[in-house]
Amino acid sequence: MKFDLHIHSCLSPCASLEMSPGEIVARAVAAGMGGIAITDHNSAMNAPAMAVRARKAGLACLFGMEVQTAEEAHTLAIFDTPEQALAMTEWVYAAMPKRVNDPDTFGDQPILSAEGDEDEIADLEWRILAMGCRRTIPETSAKAHELGGLYIAAHIDRPNFSVVSSLGSIPSAPDGTPYFDAVELSRTANADEWLPRAEGYAVTRSSDAHNLDDVARVWTEADIDRFTVAELKRAFAFRLTKPSPRITRF
Amino acid sequence: MTTAEIADKTGGAIAVDKPGAVVNYAYASDLLSDVMGHCGDESVLITIQNHLNTIAVCTLAGIEVIVICHGRPVPDDMAEAARREEVAIVTTPMSQYEASLALSELPPSKK
């Protein structure tokens, strides 16, 4: 099964407004994905709308967010249900700056309705999702796992906002317990260069799509029966994931 | 201190100019949340964060000029946002410490 675990919807201020749940699902199905995860910056407020659209299209979907931690590292917390992802959102929101988003500076943050057959804006998120939260990697890892989710270090090859760029390496607890279930390579990362730097973690590759053309341009493949957190966890534990070829031309 | 003087003192180049930038203080940090928490306005920020989000932080904190260290490139989206938000960017081959020394006549920025 092929899957893309890192896709932004229009809720992310830096993402294109065309990234509605309905359009994302259509692109993922057309690209032959067996499953996708929606992961907006610090929020899963579009998870309910995503769940409805994915269900209608028969596409397996997981729900999460890209938490920007206190270390200024981007990390993915991914869950089976919108309810778990929204519980995580509430916990992240409690540690966000209490500043109101200026759409002209940062971008719009529409929350789409889970009702009806069309992608319609139900509300606008007022918090600045482009900023980080005060939760640390150890705290965020513990919370994601407590809520039954996966915790993945995003785009570890990137020069900004990755665990490696911010901390120099992939951290684990003092007793050696890993904080992360897997690490992610960006769409352009050279696997030959980065697999040895993944420190033995299961390696994924995801699109980190911010516009429709990038949805599922790269992916991860694993021999799993169902697209669930439990199955992915098993695939990660046994290092069964295989990243797709990278993109070398735009 | 003007943007041109900052570029001159750091042996750098102006990537995005802001005529009339007012720089009376300086702050050095690579953690944007730390910049948000401690850097006041009328400041130059010395950092290696060559990223779009740095511009967003500058608009919130009132930072006038960014000095990007170690010759890191300025991505197109960052330059575009800097022009739009009227934040100047200087790139320098210096480290953050060297750039701080070069601009040491500026008092520390405080919130």
Label this structure with key terms.
heterodimer; A: 250 residues; alpha/beta; TIM Barrel; 9-stranded mixed beta sheet; two-stranded antiparallel sheet; 26% helix; 20% strand; globular; B: 111 residues; Udp-n-acetylmuramoylalanyl-d-glutamate--2,6- Diaminopimelate Ligase, Chain: A, domain 1
Describe the structure.
With 250 residues, chain A is an alpha/beta fold. Chain A contains eight helices and eleven strands. Chain A has helices at 21-30, 47-57, 82-93, 103-106, 137-146, 163-167, 191-194, 229-237, and strands at 2-7, 35-41, 60-68, 74-79, 110-112, 121-124, 150-153, 182-185, 203-205, 220-221, 242-243. In chain A, strands 9-8-7-4-3-2-1-10-11 form a nine-stranded mixed sheet. A two-stranded antiparallel ribbon of chain A has the order 5-6. In chain A, helix 1 links the parallel strand 1 (2-7) and strand 2 (35-41). The relative contact order of chain A is 0.18. Chain B has a single domain (3-102), classed as 3-Layer(aba) Sandwich (Udp-n-acetylmuramoylalanyl-d-glutamate--2,6- Diaminopimelate Ligase, Chain: A, domain 1). In chain B, helix 3 links the parallel strand 3 (43-47) and strand 4. The radius of gyration of chain B is 12 Å and the shape is globular. The interface between A and B is medium-sized, with 14 and 13 residues.
Q: Rounded to an integer, what's the Rg of chain B over CA atoms?
A: 12 Å
Unreliable stretches of chain A (pLDDT < 50, length at least 5) are none
Largest sheet of chain B: 5 strands, mixed
Radius of gyration of chain A: 16 Å
Q: Spell out the CATH superfamily of chain A.
A: Metal-dependent hydrolases
> For the largest beta sheet of chain A, what order do the strands appear in spatially?
9-8-7-4-3-2-1-10-11
What's the name of the CATH homologous superfamily of chain B?
A: HprK N-terminal domain-like
Strand content of chain B: 15-25%
Q: Largest interface, by Cβ-Cβ below 8 angstroms: which chains and how many residues each? A: A-B, 14 and 13 residues
Structural class of chain B: alpha/beta
**Total strand segments of chain A:** 11
Oligomer: heterodimer
Main β-sheet, spatial strand arrangement of chain B? 1-5-4-3-2
Helix content of chain B: 25-40%
Outline of chain B:
globular
Mean pLDDT value of chain A: 95
Indicate the percent of residues in helices of chain A.
Answer: 25-40%
User: Order of SSEs of chain B, N→C?
Assistant: HEEHEHEHEH
CATH fold-level assignment of chain A? TIM Barrel
Report strand % of chain A.
Answer: 15-25%
**CATH class of chain B, anyone?**
Alpha Beta
